């Protein structure tokens, strides 16, 4: 009896420079403390590869991710992806109920950063990309409460840019319902803004060993020990989005709600990355 081919879900990742995309991809690809909820995420080794575009993007993603893991083990920020980079990362996600999901994450952030084309053309390109995806992950950087308004201007500018692009994606869809796929808006570096977040002294992460000689995971990496209570932070984030004093993030939230089909959109907070060498949040 012929086995049914396993479904591979395709998730598109979108976010401007500085949104924390590199840190999230790297964190998913390296050893870390188990999730309190019992969820799991593992970066998969590459199988047989050919000279196809998909295989080349997998190989490029592997090279970038290994370099990024090396940086994080040193307590440094992983290298940003260039506009020309087109990576694919393969992961296995699991739940406590025993369900597993094979997911390919496609990094499409270069589409947003390409200044050689206008936003209308970007929207048309993204519309074609969306037709091939099973879900979308959008990263929106939280403002820094400790910074002045001028320092946060670039963050707000990027958020407005995301809103305009996704609004135009919908305007180019001439007929039918809104895009019918799961979409998550992740407000990254949320603890830079949350008034409830209180970091404690840093603590070492358990040591790990890697079969890759270029990746040293035997030396503990310091990260802040914190009390990131998700239900509490989610409530604070909902209040932040509902506050008219935060028009950029509220505008992106409303745009995505209007573009995506009902029940397929959700909002999440996510923590910062701790840079060991400088002792600062990034």
TrEMBL record:
<protein>
    <recommendedName>
        <fullName>Double-GTPase 1 domain-containing protein</fullName>
    </recommendedName>
</protein>
<dbReference type="InterPro" id="IPR045530">
    <property type="entry name" value="DO-GTPase1"/>
</dbReference>
<feature type="domain" description="Double-GTPase 1">
    <location>
        <begin position="39"/>
        <end position="150"/>
    </location>
</feature>
<dbReference type="InterPro" id="IPR027417">
    <property type="entry name" value="P-loop_NTPase"/>
</dbReference>
<dbReference type="Pfam" id="PF19975">
    <property type="entry name" value="DO-GTPase1"/>
</dbReference>
């Amino acid at each position: 009896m012929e086995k049914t081919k396993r479904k591979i879900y395709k998730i598109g990742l979108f976010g401007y420079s500085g949104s924390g995309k590199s840190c999230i991809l790297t964190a998913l690809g390296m050893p870390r403390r188990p999730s309190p909820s019992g969820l799991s995420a593992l970066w998969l080794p590459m199988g047989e590869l050919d000279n196809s575009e998909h295989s080349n993007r997998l190989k490029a993603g592997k090279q970038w991710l290994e370099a990024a893991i090396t940086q994080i083990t040193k307590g440094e920020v992983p290298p940003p992806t260039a506009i020309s980079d087109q990576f694919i990362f393969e992961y296995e996600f699991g739940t406590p109920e025993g369900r597993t999901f094979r997911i390919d994450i496609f990094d499409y952030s270069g589409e947003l950063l390409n200044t050689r084309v206008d936003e209308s053309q970007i929207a048309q390109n993204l519309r074609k990309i969306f037709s091939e995806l099973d879900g979308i992950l959008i990263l929106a950087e939280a403002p820094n409460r400790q910074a002045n308004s001028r320092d946060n201007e670039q963050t707000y500018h990027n958020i407005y840019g995301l809103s305009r692009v996704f609004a135009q994606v919908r305007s180019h869809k001439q007929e039918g319902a809104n895009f019918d796929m799961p979409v998550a808006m992740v407000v990254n570096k949320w603890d830079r803004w949350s008034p409830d977040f209180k970091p404690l002294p840093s603590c070492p992460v358990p040591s790990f060993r890697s079969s890759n000689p270029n990746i040293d995971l035997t030396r503990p990496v310091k990260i802040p020990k914190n009390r990131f209570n998700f239900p509490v932070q989610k409530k604070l984030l909902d209040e932040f989005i509902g506050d008219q004093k935060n028009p950029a993030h509220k505008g992106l939230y409303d745009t995505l709600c209007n573009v995506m089909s009902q029940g397929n959109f959700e909002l999440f907070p996510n923590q910062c990355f701790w840079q060991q060498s400088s002792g600062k949040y990034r």
